[in-house]
Amino acid sequence: MIRKEIKMEKLYYRIPYIRQFEAKVVSCEKGKKGFEVILDRTAFYPEGGGQPSDTGTLGTARVLDVHERGEEVIHYTDQELQEGQTVTGAIDWDSRFSNMQQHSGEHIVSGLIHGRYGYDNVGFHMGHEEMTIDLNGILTWEELMEIEKEANEIVFANRQIKATYPSEEELQKLDYRSKKELSGRVRIVEVPGADCCACCGTHVEYTGEIGAVKFLSMIHYKGGVRISMLCGAKAMEDYRRKTDQTAAISNLLSAKPDRLKEAVERLKNEAAEKDARIGALTRELLNLKVKQYEAGQKLLLVFETGMTALQIRQFCDRLLEGGKAETAAVFSEDAKGGFNYCAGSRSFDMRQAGKTLNGKLNGRGGGSAQMIQGTFKASEEEIRNVFEEIF
Fold this sequence. Notes:
about 400 residues, 5-stranded mixed sheet
């Protein structure tokens, strides 16, 4: 069906704090993601510029997603709406306001970094768990902490954030950030003392509404860095979760929260010492076990319990090095009723033998011509019969 595009009133630009509105249904068509609804006016922000779309309701229908198509805004709903009817739209305000906090905080951070280091924001994504900013230059964590401090000072100063549409002449004189060349009517978002940027997103009116700016992590990414951060309510929720985790770990380690690093380092050192002692005792035990077997056997199969894959290999190595057998294999039962194994030989090509063993014993694994390692899903009796048949 050919439909003439209409000039839709985009309330999310004119009244970003609007929560409810009334609109007329221009069209409603069945689509791949539910029903595609077009209104004569809308407060639902469509996904774009790194910001997710709004959700909410149109009458009794849930608005699941919103996208722009040319000048139109498509609302994807779970119910059909009648063309020509007037519906009440309601925005999921908690989600919308959080997006406004995140996006406004991103402006301050990107603007400050651009002003101080000259780096550009080349990637921006607002996810459910965190927000990420990709920069085309390298920062240290200490430098990022300075940016965080300055960003929060601007938040606490409660400066007004302005969105304007400068004339072409005014735009040419304006020093503003933009990811691409723009033409026509350009929307400029300005945070005094922090940023001036071409942007189509929704923002809070005053920086104080951002609440807080908190960086979570930074990694090297595509020649620059990727910063993970949160603002406002999401930052506070993240802080609450981490405070709860810190308290729980503090109780487990019987250490004060500000002493957890030292407590963990102590545990790590103690664990390393125990591992070293266990390793030494394991080597002594394996050496004693090896002495139990006569040297010069053609085939030696040893079935053990509770051995790790590493211990199985070490045991098999010692049997061969000690000349106990021409071909030796060590097995230890796994939790699934099969066996972990390691097998080596001084006369057979074990890589080729492994293929035969895997086929006959429902096995997985491989290795070199001298030694193979893996698992068999077979009984001890089946394993003994197949090894005696092959070797």
